[in-house]
TrEMBL record:
Signal peptide: none annotated. Residues 352-367 have a biased composition (Low complexity). The keyword Membrane does not apply. InterPro entries: P-loop_NTPase (IPR027417), TPST-like (IPR026634). Residues 368-388 have a biased composition (Pro residues). It is an enzyme of class 2 (transferase). Its EC number is 2.8.2.-. This is Sulfotransferase family protein. Residues 327-394 are annotated as: Disordered. It comes from the Bacteria. Coiled coil: none annotated. GO terms for molecular function: transferase activity. Keywords: Transferase.
């Protein structure tokens, strides 16, 4: 479902990020970012979108935001040696998970060095190469945490579109508790869902229906054809039946070590809807419902019979942790504003718009790696004005 309209921006005192409109004609190549609370089904949606014959969305990476945070360290990207250092940093760090993309690091490095001298261009080259691997014209990225960094992503890719997947917060909390990589407690898990919902509200009002779209996990798995058709309309794409079979590309896209995504190898189903009832303690469910407040009802989630009222001490603990998280976010925002004052270059992507298929149509089957296509000339060709980003979305 579409969220707010652009009219909501003026009530919040936010600027229109796309003054004069986008002015895009023909098939879109706007980047697509899938966002949401962790364990809300974003990997499932990633695979559904990756099953579209024009879109490629890789496994989660750790180089995009890290490169943006470290951007001042690479110096002036007009200098070829600095672009080489950036390219080697992106492709060579194991922590960045570039290796999960299945790309030729040397070829990507060369393309970045020969490309436009901005960070967004370098990162766009990586994602464009991934799309080219599958014969796709359009790329995207999926990481739940991007919901807090939409402003950063819009500085890099001003024409980006955001798809926010929302799931019952109690199911997200229950699933987070079981993840081997989640090192925090239930209080943090509850806070994460509430933060994601509140961030989504702000983005809906700021970006409007051209750049922000919400859908719910429960509706997606119950009626994937209807929900994906509506999503494709938002993206400016035709619906493709392969999108309802996300288990097909899963072995190619989801790294095998991520065993917590094993359900993506199975057909879409509703078995995990409402599973929190048997996985949360009554006080945990009660804490979630109390902390979420009207946010649950807003999306049609009913209170559970299994929940019980949390104790005053439990709710006080949540309030304290939530406040500490907000303070940490504010400190991070302040550090980011300081970094912006030291930026040696603009950061926006200057890659030219994609023109035509990246590979011959016969080679663009969803599960067959495509041969490398000739590279488009690296000529700066920005498509739209850069948005003015409110600090709270930086």
């Amino acid at each position: 479902m579409l969220s707010s309209t652009t009219a909501g921006m003026s009530s919040l005192g936010l600027d229109d990020p796309f003054p004069g409109g986008l002015g895009l004609d023909g098939p879109s190549d706007r980047p697509v970012f899938v966002i949401g609370c962790p364990r809300s089904g974003t990997t499932l949606l990633q695979l559904m979108l990756h099953s579209h014959p024009r879109i490629a969305i890789p496994a989660e990476n750790r180089f995009l935001l890290a490169a943006y945070t470290a951007r001042c360290e690479f110096g002036d990207l007009e200098d070829r040696d600095n672009r080489l250092a950036l390219a080697e940093w992106i492709t060579g760090r194991e922590a960045g998970r570039f290796g999960d993309l299945g790309l030729d690091a040397a070829a990507v490095t060369e393309e970045i060095v020969e490309g436009p001298p901005t960070l967004g261009s370098a990162l766009g080259i990586v994602f464009r190469a991934y799309a080219r691997r599958f014969g796709r014209q359009r790329w995207g990225d999926k990481r739940p945490g991007h919901v807090r960094y939409a402003g950063t992503l819009l500085r890099l890719f001003p024409d980006a579109q955001f798809v926010h997947l929302i799931r019952d917060g109690r199911d997200c909390v229950a699933s987070l508790k079981e993840m081997p990589w989640f090192r925090k407690d239930v209080y943090h898990a509850v806070a994460m869902w509430r933060e994601a919902i509140d961030a989504g509200r702000g983005l809906a009002a700021w970006l409007g229906p051209d750049a922000y779209y919400e859908l719910q996990y429960e509706r997606l798995v119950a009626d994937p054809v209807e929900e994906l058709a509506s999503l494709c309309e938002f993206l400016g794409e035709d619906f493709h039946p392969a999108m309802i079979e996300p288990q097909d590309p899963a072995p190619w896209v989801v790294p095998s070590q991520k065993v917590w995504h094993d359900l993506t190898l199975s057909p879409v189903g509703t078995a995990r809807v409402g599973a929190w009832a048997g996985r949360l303690e009554p006080w945990e469910a009660g804490l979630a419902e109390a902390a979420f407040g009207e946010r649950l009802a807003e999306y049609g989630y009913e209170p559970g019979d299994e929940a019980c009222r949390p104790s005053a001490r439990q709710f006080a603990t949540f309030t304290k942790i939530s406040a500490h998280r907000r303070l940490a976010h504010r400190k991070a925002d302040l550090q980011e504003r300081r970094r912006r004052r030291r930026e040696p270059n603009p950061v926006r992507c200057l890659l030219p718009a994609a023109t035509g298929p990246q590979v011959p149509p016969a080679a663009a089957a969803p599960l067959v790696p495509a041969p490398r296509a000739p590279e488009a000339p690296a000529v700066p060709a920005p498509r739209i004005p850069a948005p003015r980003v409110p600090d709270r979305f930086a």
